[in-house]
């Protein structure tokens, strides 16, 4: 998915949440190990990464279209086939829950905070003000929750209350099960502090040209 450009009221370009995290959050040895495993199995790790990204993008569109988002764009049947699996898991998870959308993939920009971001979904989930992020990764990472905290700050600046925020993990295989990992209260406060630290590191990197 291409990076969304964000600009403040004076036309100055601001970094995105994902840009800040990509530049400042150490990926560690896990990414190196994953790439090595792909090569060992005879796969081009860059192609695997790009295919996974396309599947995630389509799955986002399919899922969000069911809870207040726009209709998905046209995709090749082969691309849709892979994305329908996580979308199926999402449909199972959403059954019996109520969704009242307020912000769905809307670009939020703050000159005061100094960055922009596009949350997947914010609204009333079973009557509770909730921020939802959809992931097709196998498990949640701390950086995912830090990303949510950055979005929460953008939403709160606009007067939106966020009582909880969560990651909906959607497997790419039918044998898996969807998982909902959420945070609230003090957990949100800790992740906001973590975001502030990461963003400060990013600004230092910009100053020194790292």
What does it look like?
- With 210 residues, this protein is α+β, with helices and mostly antiparallel strands.
- The chain has a single domain, classed as Lambda Exonuclease, Chain A.
- The protein is 47% helix and 20% strand.
- The chain is built from six helices and nine strands, in the order ββααααβββββαββα.
- The chain has helices at residues 17-24, 28-40, 45-64, 77-94, 142-157, 186-208; strands at 6-7, 13-14, 99-104, 108-110, 115-117, 121-125, 128-135, 164-169, 179-184.
- A five-stranded mixed sheet has the order 3-6-7-8-9.
- The chain is globular.
- Mean pLDDT is 86; it is low at 28-36 and 44-52.
Which structural traits does this protein have?
two-stranded antiparallel ribbon; Lambda Exonuclease, Chain A; alpha+beta; globular; 210 residues
**Whole-angstrom Rg:** 18 Å
Apparent shape: globular
Across the major sheet, the strand order is 3-6-7-8-9
The overall pLDDT average reads: 86
The number of helices is 6
User: What is the helix/strand order?
Assistant: EEHHHHEEEEEHEEH
C-alpha termini separation: 25 Å
Record the SSE blueprint:
Layout (H helix, E strand, L loop, with lengths): L5 E2 L5 E2 L2 H8 L3 H13 L4 H20 L12 H18 L4 E6 L3 E3 L4 E3 L3 E5 L2 E8 L6 H16 L6 E6 L9 E6 L1 H23 L2
Parallel strand pairs: 7-8
Antiparallel strand pairs: 1-2, 3-6, 4-5, 6-7, 8-9
Report a brief summary of the structure:
The chain has 210 residues and is of the alpha+beta class. It has helices at residues 17-24, 28-40, 45-64, 77-94, 142-157, 186-208; strands at residues 6-7, 13-14, 99-104, 108-110, 115-117, 121-125, 128-135, 164-169, 179-184. It has 6 helices and 9 strands; from the N terminus they run ββααααβββββαββα.
